[in-house]
Amino acid sequence: MKGKRMVIPSGKNKETIVRTAVLLALGILYLGLVASAFVFAVDLASSKVMQYALHITVVLSAFAYLFFADSVNSVEGDNENGRLVLIFAALFTVPILIGRGIGLAAISFDTLYSNDSIFNFYASVSVSRTIELVAWTTFFPLSMVFLARIFFRQGKGADVLAWLCSLSATCCFAASITIVSPNLIFLFIGLFGWGFLFIAVITAYLIRQMR
Q1: pLDDT tens-digit series, residues 44-102
Q2: Which residues in the chain land under pLDDT 70?
Q3: What is the pTM of this model?
Q4: CA–CA distance, 93 with 6 (Å, rounded to integer)
Q5: In whole angstroms, how far apart are CA 65 and each of 17, 45, 71, 89, 131?
Q6: Taking each helix axis from N to C terminus, what angle separates 198-210 and 140-153, rounded to the nearest 10 degrees?
Q7: Buried b vs exposed e over 153-175: b needs ≥16 C-beta within 10 Å?
Q8: Which long-range contacts (CB under 8 A, 24 or more apart) does 80-86 make?
Q9: Can you tell me the distance from the alpha carbon of 190 to that of 69, in angstroms, rounded to the nearest whole number?
Q10: Alpha-carbon distance 211 to 208, whole Å?
């Protein structure tokens, strides 16, 4: 009786696994930081240490997502949708860098870092947070929509991934109401989409690649 053939991942698949694992680790770190801020009632508007940690984590996550999108474009064999995933990932990265860059700069200047400064990322009204929110509620979910299309085209084996991407995109689009509404429910819907659901997407994709 012949033994089962062992399938050795290609170089591209190995690179994709590493990029996906890094993105997953950064996503978990981000959720952990947000959770600890809630649990310990940290005033984000005045906590420089927590702001630094969150800013750096999000910036690294944006680059990690861009590299992840590049890998998806390379290995999934769907050039049409893969390119769009990568394009929207790149467009997503730009306002993230601008918003978090303003937030990091504000920490260095006392006049910009007051709790009610529009340059303080975690102030009640913040220019930098609004810029980033636009990225999370437009470019990020658009990239997820085309990521979902890739998996829908692959059939049954990728259905779970496709639906997770679709749900994540829907929650992120819904969070755009936060830009014009003070109701925090929409922000929590967005956090669920780009936080928990996206972590589920990355976890499922990592398991798929490792198999």
Answers
A1: 989 999 999 999 999 999 999 999 999 999 988 899 999 999 999 999 999 999 999 99
A2: 1-11, 111, 182
A3: 0.89
A4: 38
A5: 13, 27, 10, 7, 18
A6: 40
A7: eeeeebeebbebbbbbbbbbbbb
A8: 81/146, 81/147, 81/149, 81/150, 81/153, 82/146, 82/150, 84/142, 84/143, 84/146, 85/143, 85/146, 85/147, 85/150, 86/143
A9: 20
A10: 5
Q: Structure tokens of 122?
A: 């975690």
Tokens linked to 128 = 């930098």
Q: Which two tokens stand for residue 26?
A: 């950064």
Amino acid at 143: S
Q: For residue 113, what are its two tokens?
A: 């870092």
